[in-house]
Amino acid sequence: MAATLSLEPAGRSCWDEPLSIAVRGLAPEQPVTLRAALRDEKGARFRAHARYRADAAGELDLARAPALGGSFAGLEPMGLLWAMEPDRPHWRLVKRDVQTPFVVELEVLDGHEPDGGRLLARAVHERHFMAPGVRRVPVREGRVRGTLFLPAGEVQFPGIIDLYGSVGGLCEYRASLLAGHGFAVLALACFRFEDLPECLSDVRLEYFEEALAFMLHHPQVKGPNIGLLGVSKGGDLCLSMAAFLKDNITATVLINACVANTLVPLYYKDLSVPSLGYDQTKMKIMESGLLDLRDSWNNPLEEPNHQSLIPLEKAQGPFLFIVGMDDHNWKSALYAQIACEHLQAHGKDRPQIIYYPETGHCIDPPYFPPPIAFVHSVVDVAIF
């Protein structure tokens, strides 16, 4: 009996959807190795492998069988995806064109040698970034530049504005996946995209106010409130929006964000918020050769850095802080705790904090491999 590799859903699924992987037709307790691989749009290859042993009936279900080693170990049904590593150093898996899938190749090899066993079974699976019926609508409204993702149907949906960090450009894959869960999501560019300013320092908060107005007036966005989602610099921009454009913002999710305004001063009408400074001499080179910035940032609770703190007491909640415990960009866990204490001191609800170990600074949607490093746009050096 030939071995077969079974995937459910068969053929295609969304990237953030769990994938059931099973092998049948093996010999009782047969040792096998499973491999997975894909290529991104730049041609970089990502791979993972894991060693398993079939049960007494010659079957292997990754939801019940622990990996015995390889790229990961233990019971990890989706490990063949999230444990993928790039062939290129410091290369991060991102999706540049959400209208096309990643094509994942899965193989079953006899024995526990990832590169030497006889091929027993093979399957190809498409992992898509737009659920069936999701619409991608480019936005060029006034000064606002981005992409609006709308779920299937002609009704109204809760609205979210999605902001990335200090790299600029337009990143769509998180917004496109969220739309598959019933949200109208605007992936918003703010600099280094089309006719937008080339530098973040030239972006004013009025731009985000205009994006908020666009969402509130869209016929398929359910008002009168909007949620915000931001990572890194995008996170503190979301906090500034919640504090200064507060009337229609009622939920904010921050991924490895700072509670102070960072990198460049923030301007809004007659308001000017200085940026949190840093001491370049306190940057550290880790044993891996990567850069650690955590101790280089000034303490936002001390003067004169206190002026860079974002006045969270002016914002409406709730707040959710998602924190990578080994974030080497800044002290995300400490900043989340500062936010808790600050909000409670002003009679606000304590924000929820979710901690994730071994994820670094860039926490992506489910099943993306945590990047070992990325090149920081400010210091132009790879950090974790």
Explain how this protein is built.
The protein is of the alpha/beta class and 384 residues long. Helices cover 13% and strands 32% of the residues. It is built from five helices and 23 strands. The chain has helices at residues 79-82, 173-179, 205-217, 233-244, 332-345, and strands spanning 4-8, 12-14, 20-24, 31-39, 45-53, 60-61, 85-86, 102-110, 119-128, 135-141, 144-150, 157-163, 184-189, 221-231, 249-255, 266-268, 271-273, 284-285, 291-292, 319-324, 352-356, 374-375, 382-383. The strands form six sheets. The chain has an eight-stranded mixed beta sheet, sandwiched between helices. β10 and β11 form a beta hairpin.
Brief synopsis:
With 384 residues, this protein is an alpha/beta fold. It has 2 domains: 4-128, Sandwich (Immunoglobulin-like), CATH 2.60.40.2240; 135-383, Rossmann fold (3-Layer(aba) Sandwich), CATH 3.40.50.1820.
The assigned CATH architecture of the largest domain is: 3-Layer(aba) Sandwich
Number of distinct beta strands = 23
**Percent range for β-strand residues:** 25-35%
Structural class based on helices, strands and sheet pairing: alpha/beta
**Sheet with the most strands, sense and barrel status:** 8 strands, mixed
Read across the widest sheet, the strand sequence of neighbours is 10-11-13-12-14-15-20-21
Number of domains: 2
What's the average pLDDT? 93
What is the rounded distance between the termini? 47 Å
Task: Give the SSE order as H and E letters.
Answer: EEEEEEHEEEEEEHEHEHEEEEEEHEEE
Total helices: the number is 5
